[in-house]
Amino acid sequence: MSEDKKMDLTEETARKWLHERGVEIQDIADLVYYLQEKYHPDLQMEECVLNVERVLSKREVQNAILTGIQLDIFAEKGLMEEPLQSIVGSDEGLYGVDEVLAFSIVNVYGSIGFTNYGYIDKMKPGILKDLNDKSSGKCHTFLDDIVGAIAAAASSRLAHRVAHTE
Ligand SMILES: [Mg+2]
Prior knowledge:
Elements: H1 3-20, H2 25-36, H3 45-56, H4 59-76, H5 84-89, H6 97-106, H7 112-123, H8 127-131, H9 143-165
Helix pairs in contact: 1-4, 2-3, 2-9, 3-9, 4-6, 6-9, 7-9
């Protein structure tokens, strides 16, 4: 496979898997709006969408999405070895590797991302609340952190851009 083809396939698959796991671009843009509206009174939703799109176009972000969702699916199907199956399957609080994977996304647009990520992870607004609903029978141990991280990174990107134009 040529490098170009592989790149397209990676992005295409990352976007497809997000959709299949119940996460739309708009859901993530809503999180960005939630994080940024208090700082930018004129904030437009389309700006939030655009910044999410830019984050999703980064290769390291796509790699984190694919890896995290793949692990969630394995856990959901009971395909992991113990003790990992129980740990990931039950979203054990002290596991922490889901957050470490998400940091590779948060990192992309600098350190404001970490503050945003911590905040949104604590508040769990919108889609994050749905992903954390254990009664769904789905496993989103990795995906909730990934989605929060994409929103945090997109917020940082947006904040940096606004700072530059002001
Ligand atoms: Mg998690």
